[in-house]
Design goal:
The structure is a homodimer. With about 350 residues, chain A is of the alpha/beta class. Chain A has 15 helices and 10 strands. In chain A, helix 5 links the parallel strand 3 and strand 4. In chain A, helix 12 packs across helix 13.
Chain lengths: ~350, ~350
């Protein structure tokens, strides 16, 4: 990942950088709606005197079903066309794979995607349907990296990492730019805070940059079973290891090297939630909002409804980022079954 | 239902009447989003030379989970406050019951709801949670009407029927007013046609009035298993009987007496679809759009994707009304199972 330490790019890691990214990708991604829901806001308010209104940014409706297309599109836009001649490559079993395939197709560029052979069938089919050239690898990180490096050397394709890269971070930050302006224009409110899920930290770091200087406070939401960001914030050291048992499969990655210091600097606090809280939030969203979010995307709402948030969080107008909606429909019923 | 034949009200059954209704209810109902979806529009286009773009009006996100709140709110707004003193009453096992409970609560009026004792538990709970006073009746229409009439006589509550009433029709028509203006303002397109589901015909008649004189062509979508509207249009006689076996439970009612002549006059054609087509459309919406629609609400999309529509329908910018999203989550998995 040489690109990710490119000093020229790194200087751009500011709110202005997010705005420039937005100018580049705006016409290529969907401006997803911001929804509200009275009954969920009432639950979030509870017995508080100050009412809480939640504003849900629906990146589950984004192209490819997740925010990832923003970063992928931005990364491709920032490369010169001769740098794209040999195609682009990544390894991912999830939303970044689909996003890169879509973004590359839109630019007429070949996308090589390395996926673990045990990836879920719908994700493989989706990546294929977007024109991605899939190579399967073994399931572990070293196996995936080995296959990726082999193809990269053979094809000279450009590596586009999923989160640990300035252009990816700036692209993902456009989620909050839109959420802030839509909340203002469509509802007449200024956000007091936003809760963003954290896995590798591309979305969180980007949103933190986008919020800087605006007065919007940024909080992170993480599964307790994959709490590397929370631990890292406490110790002051990036935690490179993370367990992979949480149902929130998009958040099973450690926070990236570039992402961590941004998060340390600009994110106020990381809240963790249990598996039960995540699934209850996912069910509530289906039931009351009539929309499908993947478990990872339900984590910020789970935070907003938790007792810890009521105690240490913020009241008022709270942005909730629904990061994606890619969930195996045949598994939904099992996931949301009432305990 | 004496009110529904009130000659003074009937004179209002015009596009202007829908606009006046909108002025009354606008601040009391949700302006639901209009979504698009590239992959579904691509499927709808098929091998046609003229591309079709579908614009989905998401009344599944409406208060109470369906468009019904529009008509109920309008009906209450049109009554003088002394006419509301004794409360309002209706019989319904579905979305109208919840809508009337919500609208009445907002006005501080008591709502009596007669529900068949075999109603689905989530619907009973929802109606109760909105403050509706429920009385159970036997499941047949005469039993329900008997109980309703008994309570009405005792309480002197005002009957608010679910669809066969001018104020209800005009209120429901506001769905299309919004869809047309949102498609223009947010996407820069004028609708060529709209496909609306038909059960009792409140929504369809209202939309037909709203479209009149605008150049937007109005089509109806109906389950083949409950095709009373389609048959009525062919014979020129309202068909008072309808089978109740379709999965689209909101469309198991015959078209109303006031509704039928409006539909005859302004609706171009009724398309019917099979149960399989309805469920495939519902699955597609969950999978690609990440939103929950109830089977009744999937019927217009099922039409847009059918061979009959490709042959006899309209290409271009087509509005699709997602009428509601109230479906038992525990049953979703069974409903959408791939055949």
């Amino acid at each position: 990942m040489i690109e990710s330490r490119d000093p020229e790019s790194v200087t751009d890691l500011t709110r202005q950088g997010v705005e420039s990214a937005y100018a580049l990708i705006k016409s290529k991604v969907k401006k997803t709606p911001v929804l509200t829901n009275e009954s969920i806001s009432t639950i979030a308010t509870g017995s508080d005197e100050v009412p809480t209104t939640l504003f849900f940014k629906c990146e589950n409706f984004q192209k490819g079903g997740a925010f990832k297309i923003r970063g992928a599109t931005h990364a491709l836009e920032k490369l010169r066309s001769e740098e794209l001649d040999n195609g682009v490559i990544t390894h991912s079993s999830g939303n970044h794979a689909q996003a890169l395939a879509i973004a590359a197709k839109a630019k007429g560029v070949r996308a090589y995607i390395v996926m673990p052979s045990n990836s879920a069938r719908p994700k493989i089919e989706a990546t294929q349907s977007y024109g991605g050239h899939i190579t399967f690898s073994g399931p572990t990180a070293p196996e995936r990296e080995y296959v990726t490096e082999t193809i990269r050397k053979k094809t000279n394709a450009r590596l586009i990492p999923p989160y640990d890269h300035p252009h990816i971070i700036l692209g993902q930050g456009t989620v909050l730019l839109e959420l802030m302006s839509q909340t203002q224009e469509e509802y007449g409110h200024k956000l007091d805070a936003v809760i963003v899920p954290v896995g590798g930290g591309g979305l969180l770091a980007g949103c933190a940059l986008a919020a800087h200087g605006t007065g919007v406070r940024v909080f992170a939401a993480e599964p307790a079973l994959a709490d590397d960001c929370s631990r890292g914030m406490e110790t002051g050291q990036r935690e490179p290891n993370v367990a992979t048992t949480t149902v929130a499969d998009g958040l099973r990655t450690p926070v990236g090297v570039i992402n961590f210091p941004i998060i340390q600097k600009y994110v106020e606090k990381v809240f963790t939630v249990s598996e039960e809280e995540i699934l209850a939030a996912m069910r509530l969203v289906l039931e009351r909002m009539k929309i499908v979010v993947e478990p990872s995307a339900a984590v910020p709402l789970a935070v907003a409804l938790s007792d810890r948030w009521k105690k240490d969080g913020v009241k008022g107008n709270i942005g909730i980022v629904f990061s994606g909606g890619n969930v195996d429909l045949d598994k939904i019923a099992d996931l949301i079954k009432k305990p």
